[in-house]
Amino acid sequence: MAGRTGTPEGRKLSRRFGWLTVLGAILVLGGIVGLVYTGLATLTSMILFGWLLLVGGLVGLLQAVQSRGSNFFWLGVVVAALNLAAGIVVLRHPEGTAEALTMFAALLFLTGGVFRLAGSVVVRGPQFGWTLVQGAFGVLLGLLVLFDWPHSSLYVLGCFFSLALLFDGLGLIAIGTGGRQMVSMVAAATPEDQEETRD
User: Fold this and answer.
1) 122 CB-contact burial (10 Å; exposed 0-12 / middle 13-18 / buried 19+)
2) How far apart, in whole angstroms, are the C-alpha atoms of residue 163 and residue 135?
3) How many domains is the chain built from?
4) How far is CA 96 from the centre of its chain?
5) Considering the chain, what is the average pLDDT of its residues?
6) Is residue 162 part of a domain?
7) CA–CA dist 8, 2 (Å, integer)
8) Phi, psi at residue 147, to the nearest 5°?
9) Is the pTM value of this prediction over 0.85?
10) pLDDT category of residue 71 using cuts at 50, 70 and 90
11) How far is CA 153 from CA 45, 113, 139, in A?
12) Would you tell me the crossing angle of helices 38-66 and 156-188 to the nearest 10 degrees?
C-alpha cells in the first residue's frame, strides 16, 4: 500500500513530518532564548527586518527592470528604492528603528484598545465582556509601553519576536508529531481494514 510506512512513500512522508518536528523544536529553543535575552532578540529582529527590506527592494527593482515599458515601471522603481533606503536605515540604526517601531506598536495597542472599549460600550453585543477585557488589556499594554519608552524598545519587539518563534515552533511540533502518528496509524491498519474502508 502506498500510504503505509513500510513503503518508500510512507517512510518519506514520516521523515518529512520528523523534520517539521525538528524545525519546530529549533524555533521553540530560539523563542525561549529570545525571551531570556530580549535585547539581543530585538537587535536580531531589526537586523532581519533590514535585510528583508533590502532583499525585497532588490527583487522589486529586478522586476521593475524586467517590466520596463509598462505602466507600472516607475511605480515599481519608486517602491523598490523606498524598500532599499528603509533597509539601509534599519541596518545602520537598529536601535533607533526599534524605538520608532515600539512607539508605533504602543500607539497601535492604545488606539485599538480605546476603539474596542468604545465599541463594546456602544454596541453591548453578546461578546460585550470579552471585548471589554480585550480593550482594557490593549489600553493597559499601550500605556505600559509608552510610559517606559524609549527603554521599552529594548525588550518589547524582542519579546514579540520570541513569542512568535515560540508559538510557530509549537505549531510545527504539533503538526509533525500528529502527522507521524497518522502515518503510523495507517501503517498499523491491516489490509482487510483498508479494503473495508474502500468498500
Assistant:
1) exposed
2) 21
3) 1
4) 22
5) 78
6) yes
7) 8
8) -65, -25
9) no
10) confident
11) 12, 20, 18
12) 80
